[in-house]
Amino acid sequence: MENNVERKGDDQGTCLDLTLFSLAGVSCNSVEQKIYVELNNMVPCVRLLNATHQIGCQSSISGDVGVIHVLESEANLEWVLSTGPNPPYMVILESALFTRSIMMKLKNGTGRVAGAAVVVSKTNPAEGFSPHTKCPNENTGVYSESYDPTMAHCNVTVWNPLGNGLSYEEFDFPIFSLNDDNDTEAIRQCYLGYNLGVNGSTPEYPLCAMQLFSHMHAVTDTATCMRRNDINFSINPEMVCDPLGDYNVWGSTKPLNNTAKGHKEGESMVIAATRLDSRSFFWDVAPGAESAVSGFVTLLAAAHALHNVTQEAHPPRTILYTFFQGEAFDYIGSSRMVYEMDHKQFAIDLDNVHSVVEIGQVGLRSSSELWVHSDPVSRRNNSINVSSLIDTLKSAAMNLNVTMSVPSFSQPLPPSSFQRFLRARPIPGVVIADHQSAFSNRYYESIYDKAANLNLTYPANLTEDEQLEFVTETANALADLATVVARALYKQAGGADAQLINIKAEPKIVTQMLYGFLVRSNNTWFQALVPPEFKNFLSKLECHYYVGVSQTPSHARTPTRLVQYLLANLTGTTINITKENCHNSLIIKPSSLPQLYSYVWVQGVASPNSTERQGFCVRSSVRLSKAVSPAFDLLQEYSSKDYSTWTESRWKFIKARIFLVASHDLEMLTLGVGVGILLSSLLLTYIISSKADILFSSGREPANATY
């Protein structure tokens, strides 16, 4: 029973605690606000499903309630799991205690655990933390029983040794994260005020409790939830899950006819690839600094460095820039593009692909050395010229602060989009990374893979605009790598060596991108490069790179759209037409004519001392293509072993709140008194009703009465 008790021994009927409400920014002007303190900055772990499993967390349909217990150490678990007198408990964990050992003990807590909340530290744990598996995407890469089984399942190299697999566990209670801020302080004060006994004694009621709502609609696996989506017969059908998905971003140094799909006669393409997404244990919290941002910022900088040279002296081959979404979930984006190429549904086909250069995790090199990974099966095949591509990268790094090295032993490719191309056919390709074997990233796919992980820091006295322009060491390092990549791509595409000196990435642009993607997307540079209708999606905080579900409106996909607009501005051309004509450039063109370009009207820079902007139209070859697994909208094979089958459950609402809970004895007493009053009322009503003719009768006057 939820009870309105102010302090132990104090009068009832006032706010839970004026201090708690002031911390949470709440005023006591309603009955509900007098009972509950709503927690606004908590993020849930949600349920995900694939062909065989469901993972993640959920609450009961009415939310789960437990007495708050702040866990001080793993030894303190005994209070929660056995000795504590007031179960179930809502366990509050500092981030240092958010380990597999503790979470699995809570998972097996035999009904004494109602849920958990993890207080996210502002500093990264020194020992590292990765809730992903030790072998990411091991079942959907190229290595399998039919393709060098000795290399499968990380038999040679364990890529993510710190991976504890928590993101792939199923918990039958809710788990939320909360920042170390006012909400956390309100919880601590409530716990200290009510749940700690005096001098080690057992705490007395009322006790501080927490209620978490995160009930998930989908259960079992993807095939089950998709089937339930299809058999809903109501007028307004309620979906229970959605496929994960977004859009890939791609562009080319020479415009491609996107109207005619399939093979392009005479075209040979060098694909420059990277990934756009990341993930963590908690929903939509995926800063992805090293796992995603370091790679796609490097490729954006390389594309910009190549722009002028490829316009003046285009090489014999075309360079295709590809930014894949959903790679954290069994290569959603790359598998979709490869499928479309293989089935003549993309602007080119696999026969047009000459080679692939992929940029992986590249932000944590401790020296000038970076590593070029290649497939050992391809290296043994003389018809696949991988060594020439490696030599091209090595020569491109000459006279720069970068050394391109090859691992000294035979090992498979690290988790990478290129593996999906190799599944389709043998293609020369490499993956560039900052690790020789195991990841350098000690926070892979976690909430801690943020700007600090890349040592992205700024002097304390700088304004926001000054931080945007401040060239960090990380920006310089990535700019050097972008120069190497750009020169290697140009040479791989058949460009002349004489032009290489003109290809150089700009550290200032790299530092602006790092600031925008990892610190504050709502900055003056990003504002100038996006359409007016997109400005409201820019944030004062960093972006997050969880892929989301395919039903999300495209304009709300902030990272994808930002990369699209930046690639268009960095590789496109400003044309002198009006805003209306810019918007209509594709619409007014007959569908029978080839679609070579895309057009976007961007805000431009604000005039000095004015809010008015000088907008302009950008013409480029940049486009979006679907990043939804072929298992869904193309094949409808929800139990596929070849393609990603990840879905996200739907939910009604997510909410967290704290309040004071009365003892079970008081609840029973209140219930007994209530039942007694009810029975007494019924008995009294019966007696009054049976005697109504006596109690409520009125004497009639004689008919012949006169006045």
TrEMBL record:
Indicate yes or no for the key word Ubl conjugation: no
Q: How does it sit in the membrane?
A: Single-pass type I membrane protein
Looking up PROSITE patterns in the UniProt record yields: PROKAR_LIPOPROTEIN
Q: Which residues form the Nicastrin small lobe domain?
A: 44-218
The record, for InterPro entries, names: Ncstrn_small (IPR041084), Nicastrin (IPR008710)
Predominant location: membrane
An example GO BP is: Notch receptor processing
Name a GO CC annotation attached to this entry: plasma membrane
Keywords, sorted A to Z = Glycoprotein, Membrane, Notch signaling pathway, Signal, Transmembrane, Transmembrane helix
Pfam families the UniProt entry points to: Ncstrn_small, Nicastrin
Q: Which domain of life is it from?
A: Eukaryota
Entry's transmembrane regions: 668-688
Presence of the UniProt keyword Transferase in the record: no
Q: Which family does it belong to?
A: Belongs to the nicastrin family.
Task: Tell me which PANTHER family the record gives.
Answer: NICASTRIN
Q: What is this protein called?
A: Nicastrin
